């Protein structure tokens, strides 16, 4: 069991900016190189970490081969405090690890000179449970003796430690001894830096792409909130609107009305009355905002297009187009038509490379702009849309192409919720979630973002921040490639779906029969049935598939299995709901599965299947459909509610 988190200090908890220091103090490049070689990139640096070397001795050592640099070397060694700084994440990391019940230590290569110069920055060590500085012990990483001394001093076994360091050789040495070790990469640090400057209000130098969903732009009142949000920060430069969504439950989205219009025209009926209703919605927004915009001409053009056969996407896209025009007028910023920069081929397949070039070229000189979501065009100007909910994709594409620091996706909830709010009333939002965790939850039915919106930002290493237009002060959820922050409740989220059927096959000595599983799985593949989960034992294998896709082919599948393999027993169990409990912190916590099952037993829910993913990122539980809601509530409660009391 993990008991302790151990941090390296330089470049992990303290920013060590010697390059910037040299640049600031020595204008000549060749001198900077000489000094870097004489000091920071010199083996003597490690020597001074691993021995107790006072200042004068250090100056003499470093300048022995380069006596002409002695005065600069002395200057640098006596001004070290100028190139150290505490990272904004340092204390939050320490506190997060402590909150999680871990002891927190440092294990650092540090010289006496650096120590004496930087004591004022090291006050965070007071909040830790202890640690070792190399010069005090006269040994340094990656020497295994140093790690062993640490373990002895704090009575820890290597396997009880998670060790964070930025150097490969130190990580490898820790792993060799049996510690879990995490390499703190520069990517991870810049992501943390972004996150902390985002949450602490230091947004000045950032570039954000902000996408607003339909409910955020459904009425003039919502437009006002959007304007306040955009104008609250200089960094919010590119704004991607959806079409007006629902204003109240039972209301119709403009995109749906546009599709209706198009169908109506296709059936040879006059779509005018629906068109009037749509125009009325926009006119209400325009007059509510006090703008003097007239959309008569646009509506005339839209109607003309109805007569064309291939105008379905064009028609649907006008929802975003018109909303974008209104928003740009209201914000008083440029309007850039997505048809000019988001590229499709004539078959309607999105063209990533061409788009990236177009977007970069079009936006390089534009300070702030509104770009409607959901559509683009092919070379001949024909409009194509993404699939429904596709404004998320446009936002992600723009964020990726301009290299945004963050992609803010504004909606009507304060982030991705830990559980479905229709089951768990007042479910809390998740603070930070990794892409992998999100994928597990979305796959199991949690609806958050359009799936295709993840890729363009993930690829570019840009985090997504889900925010609530109606509660702009809520921090929302940060979706990132990775994070050091454990989830506060061990489980990051829980989601599930009903309607599965489990097929369990038993055969004595199944494990001795080569190709047995393959033969069974082949049958499902031949019938084009997707396998959702496959827990197995020594003499049993189970296959979980969607009931709908299985039902029609049931008898043929069973007959094929019978003809391919011999079995002792086969059993079908239908109406199974699969629930995924997802969490990056689960693997380091003892007893997670035990807590889940205790909670379910207590709620009188019978567990039909358990499958722990090999990534240990999730535990899948099968329960009867009718127990689904009770099970989700019980799991939420055991992790979240019990932690709060
Ligand atoms: N308006 C489109 C839809 O309703 C796209 C979007 O809102 O993202 O699907």
Protein architecture, described:
With 645 residues, the protein is of the alpha/beta class. The chain has three domains: 1-184, HAD superfamily/HAD-like (Rossmann fold), CATH 3.40.50.1000; 204-243 and 321-480, Carbamate kinase, CATH 3.40.1160.10; 493-644, VC0802-like. The chain has 25 helices and 23 strands. An eight-stranded mixed beta sheet has the order 10-11-9-8-14-16-17-15, with helices on both faces. The protein has a six-stranded antiparallel beta sheet with strand order 19-20-18-21-23-22. Helix 13 (254-266) packs antiparallel against helix 14 (272-288) and helix 21 (516-526) packs antiparallel against helix 23. Aspartic acid binds at residues 214, 242-243, 253, 255, 319, 373-374, 388-392.
Task: Please give a handful of descriptors for the protein shown.
VC0802-like; 41% helix; single chain; Carbamate kinase; Rossmann fold; binds aspartic acid; 645 residues; six-stranded antiparallel beta sheet; eight-stranded mixed beta sheet; alpha/beta
Please give the share of residues in helix.
Answer: 40-55%
How many domain regions? 3
Got a strand count? 23
Distance between the termini: 25 Å
- Could you give me the name of the CATH homologous superfamily of the largest domain? Acetylglutamate kinase-like
| CATH architecture classification of the largest domain | 3-Layer(aba) Sandwich
Main sheet: strand order: 10-11-9-8-14-16-17-15
CATH class of the largest domain: Alpha Beta
Q: Largest sheet at a glance?
A: 8 strands, mixed
Number of helices: 25
CATH topology of the largest domain: Carbamate kinase
Chemical compounds bound to the protein? aspartic acid
| Proportion in β-strands | 15-25%
- Rough shape? globular
Average pLDDT taken over every residue: 91
Structural class: alpha/beta
Low-confidence stretches: none
